Amino acid sequence: MKTVSVINIKGGVGKTTLAANLGAYAASQGRRVLMIDLDPQASLTFSFMMPEEWRNFYADNMTMKNYFDAAARDMKIPSLSSLAVKLDMGDALNLEDRKFDLICSHLGLVGTDIKLASHIFAHDIDLLASTTLKVCSYLRKSLSEIQDDYDLVLIDCPPNTILS
Ligand SMILES: Nc1ncnc2c1ncn2[C@@H]1O[C@H](COP(=O)(O)OP(=O)(O)OP(=O)(O)O)[C@@H](O)[C@H]1O
Ligand SMILES: [Mg+2]
């Protein structure tokens, strides 16, 4: 499984468009693809579903906010598999029998972003080690747990350096 993060500190330069199209193309070529929306703006999420669907089915329990909230509170972290939504693309791009999944974002991730940033800029090494770095290591571990399930993981990052 390859993990590719689409990162650029500058906003509006095409990160999400690239992630969405790379994901769809790779899936159309038979790769098992998971896209992770790490941007509180949730542009990738709303590239693939209507806001009503997100609000009704995923907003409360199946977004990266659930993941980071649990990590920050030292609670049991949901597996990435349990957060992944199988996208229904109908017959678009001949993707109907492909593995093309998405983990949604949530505007509330802004809070996670601010919290992590405050730890970094406070120059408090202990706080940084006990929170920010731990959260990063959780994500690395969670990705390793799904390495047999996907060929490609694409992470759409926000236009900053904190969550990215
Ligand atoms: N290659 C392209 N040519 C022309 N327009 C593009 C191209 N790629 C993306 N766009 C348009 O540019 C705008 C910004 O794209 P996108 O949302 O992908 O950027 P982003 O880097 O993810 O933004 P943000 O930093 O806010 O997350 C969108 O309206 C998108 O349709
Ligand atoms: Mg974007």
What would you note in describing this structure?
The chain is of the alpha/beta class and 164 residues long. The chain has one domain (2-156): Rossmann fold (3-Layer(aba) Sandwich), CATH 3.40.50.300. It has helices spanning 15-28, 45-48, 51-58, 64-72, 80-83, 109-121, 125-130, 132-145; strands spanning 2-6, 33-37, 85-86, 100-103, 152-156. It has a five-stranded mixed beta sheet. The two termini are 20 Å apart. The mean pLDDT is 89. It binds adenosine-5'-triphosphate (ATP) and magnesium ion.
Coarse structural class? alpha/beta
Distance between the termini: 20 Å
CATH class group: Alpha Beta
Give the overall shape.
globular
| Overall pLDDT | 89
Question: What's the tally of helices?
Answer: 8
CATH superfamily: P-loop containing nucleotide triphosphate hydrolases
N to C succession of SSEs: EHEHHHHEEHHHE
Strand count, sense and barrel status of the largest sheet are: 5 strands, mixed
- What is the rounded Rg? 16 Å
What kind of assembly state do the chains in view correspond to? single chain
Task: Give the gist of this structure.
The protein is of the alpha/beta class and 164 residues long. The protein is 44% helix and 13% strand.
